[in-house]
């Protein structure tokens, strides 16, 4: 039951749902997520950590960037099921649609140098 609760609690926050929906459309670093949602870097990092602990996202370092993307669900059947369904859910939600339209314009290379350092240092 703990694995189920981790997944459902991770999805109980609107910003974490938004992060997952964005990651379904684009691999992103923490500074891009921060820019898209208009939240502080520590807040974005905490959300990413919670999603990763629930088995909903994974990350990998590529050069100075730590890229986040949806998990494959192999570690949790609950995460796998919700990730599969979430791919179709909320696509017609106005707020989600607006975020999805916005993310191609958010480019890590164009975010200030300070934020690049935060991306590298934060681990998220």
Automatic annotation (TrEMBL):
This protein's record includes keyword Repeat: no
CDD domains xrefs: HTH_ARSR (cd00090)
Highest taxon listed in the record's lineage: Bacteria
Annotated Pfam families: HTH_5
HTH arsR-type domain boundaries: 1-90
Keywords: DNA-binding, Transcription, Transcription regulation
SMART domains in alphabetical order: HTH_ARSR
InterPro entries: ArsR-like_HTH, HTH_ArsR_DNA-bd_dom, Metal_resp_trans_reg, WH-like_DNA-bd_sf, WH_DNA-bd_sf
Molecular function in Gene Ontology: DNA binding; DNA-binding transcription factor activity
Gene3D superfamilies assigned to the protein according to its UniProt record, in alphabetical order: Winged helix-like DNA-binding domain superfamily/Winged helix DNA-binding domain (1.10.10.10)
PROSITE patterns in the cross-refs: HTH_ARSR_2
NCBIfam families: HTH_metalloreg
This protein's name: Transcriptional regulator, arsR family
Organism of this sequence: Syntrophus aciditrophicus (strain SB)
